Each structure stands twice: as C-alpha cells, then as structure tokens.
Amino acid sequence: MKKWLILLVMMTTLLLMACGSTDDTTEAPDDSDVNKQEEDSTEQEEQEESEAPESEEETEPEFVEITLEGSLIPVVNWVWLDNQDIMTFAVERAEQELTKEERLKESLIQSDFTNHQSFHELLEVSIDDSTATLVFSQNQMFMSLASTEQLLLDEMLYQLTALFGVDTLVFYVEDQRGLDYGQTGRIETMSMEAESNRGYYLLVDEEAQGEREHALYVPRYQSDDRMTTESDFSETIEEMQQLNDQPDKYQPAIPEAVNVIDVKEEEGIVEIRFEAEDSVNLEDFYNIIELTALDFELETLQLVNELTYEIIAIDIN
C-alpha cells in the first residue's frame, strides 16, 4: 500500500512538471509584428481621411442671380444752397416695368416745380430716335412762366431728357403743333443743351435737404471740375467713393458700407463686383449706380456681391 502511495506522488509530480514545461515553450508575440500592425492601421486611417468628401463648410456656395424689378424714374428737385438754386435728383422706382416714353412722362410730371403745374397736363410722350414729342392738353399754362422759373425749367429739361438720350423736344397742344412758352413766346421745338455729367454726390446739408425723406443726389458738373467728358464709367464709380472738399454739404454717393472691388465694361454691359454685408440696405446703392449708368447710355448692369453671393441684374430700358 505504501508503495502505491509513493508511486502516485511520483506520477503527480511528473505530470505537474510536464504542464510547466508546456507553458514555458509558448512563444510571446514579436514586437515587430505589433509595430507593423499599428503602421498599417495608421496608413488606412490617413487614406480614408484623404478620400472623405469635403464638408459643406469648405464648399464654396454658388451665386444666385436676382433681377431688380420696376423701372427707375429720375426726379428733379431744386434746393437752395450757397445762395443759389442747385438741381438735385431723387430716384423713384415704379412697381412695374415701364417703357422709355412712360418713364420720361412720369419723370417730367414728378419733377414739375412750376407754379401752374403744367406738366400735369401732359397727355402723351413719344420718342423717335433722339427726338421726343410732348402732347399737352389745352389747360397747360407755360405762357405764364416767370423769367427765373423759365431758366430753371430749361435746365431741368436739358439734364432730365439727357438721361433718356433725347436732344430735341417737339411740342403739341392737343393736335396743334407749338405752344406759348414764357418769355420766349411761341415755340414748336426746343434743342436740349445738357451739361455733360459724370457722377453724383449725396447731399447731406440738412437745411437744403429740408423735410425730404428720400436721398438727393447732386450732379457733379455743378460742383466738381475733376470729372470731365473723358472720364469713363469705371473712373466715375471710383470718384463717387471719394470725399469732396465740402464734406459738410456733400458726401460720396456710394455708401461707405459698400466696397467696390472692380468695374468692367464691355459692349454696353457693365459688371460691378463689390462687398457689402447682408445687413446693409443696398437700395440707394442700386439706384445711384443705375442713375449714373443713364449718363453713359449703358444697357445692362450686373452688380455682384462677393459676400452674399448675389448677382443683381438691372436692365436699363
């Protein structure tokens, strides 16, 4: 019995020794294999990142084209400044698109400062090339024009009709050609002798502005000899951002919040690239640019806002 116990102890000991030997022979993982696996994983992550599509924030948005609705109507306002009458322009915009004839008629009526409001008796306007025919009712009172009133009316007609490419006016009363015109007497036609204008200032003199709520723009030929007939549209826009030597009376017509970057003109089409925040009211900017374009007889404007990605298209009819 004792021998069997000894034999059992010996067999158990041998069995334990055999198990320990098996554990010692198990190989540990090689460090080089671990490093290689890590490198492969890093390369795969980098490749996935490089192939991932760009986020929406990195994609540059597309420009949206917006057509400015309604026709521009220039309106003459006379103001008293520096002891003299100064002609200014306000800008109205009709709710619908008007023909050139309709726009000229509306401009003449809204610009009428005469005592008898004779342009309110304007019945019809037709334009043939550079000649405009004005037909009045029998109630017109041009014969009652005072001398100073007539001088101011002449200048108003010269500068206003120039914006429509008109250099001759033909007058009718009903179906009769000609009318009695102030101190001049009977006339049938009138040649327009407009001063060549290049650009505008914004009037800021409070006394001259009076209670008018809309912006008033002063043609630069009345106050600035730097602008000449040789100045092109791009040069004019650049000058309209500059201060004049009377900042208490005139300010640049282009708002300070608008930064004009570039102006390109080709075959009657002008592209103006500018920057203005979305919070800036650009109505006056659009209006003064279109008013200036009329002096150059341009056809189409494209105002490109680089910050809001908008293209404002203006068709000048």
Characterise the protein shown here.
This protein is an alpha+beta fold and 317 residues long. It has helices at residues 2-24, 31-51, 100-110, 147-162, 206-209, 233-239, 283-295; strands spanning 64-67, 72-81, 84-93, 122-128, 131-136, 168-173, 176-177, 179-181, 185-187, 189-191, 200-203, 217-219, 250-252, 259-266, 269-275, 300-305, 310-315. Among the domains are: 64-68 and 196-315, no CATH class; 99-191, no CATH class. It contains 7 helices and 17 strands. β14 and β15 form a beta hairpin. The model is unreliable at 24-28 (pLDDT under 50).
Low-confidence stretches: 24-28
Distance between the termini: 128 Å
Fraction of residues in helix: 25-40%
How large is the radius of gyration? 40 Å
Could you say which structural class the secondary elements and strand pairing correspond to?
Answer: alpha+beta
Write out the strand line-up for the largest beta sheet, numbering strands in chain order. Answer: 1-17-16-15-14
Bulk shape: globular
Proportion of residues in extended strands: 25-35%
- Strand and helix order: HHEEEHEEHEEEEEEHEHEEEHEE
Largest sheet: 5 strands, mixed
Summed over residues and divided by their number, the pLDDT gives a mean of 84
The total count of strands amounts to 17
Instruction: Please work out how many helical segments DSSP would assign.
Output: 7
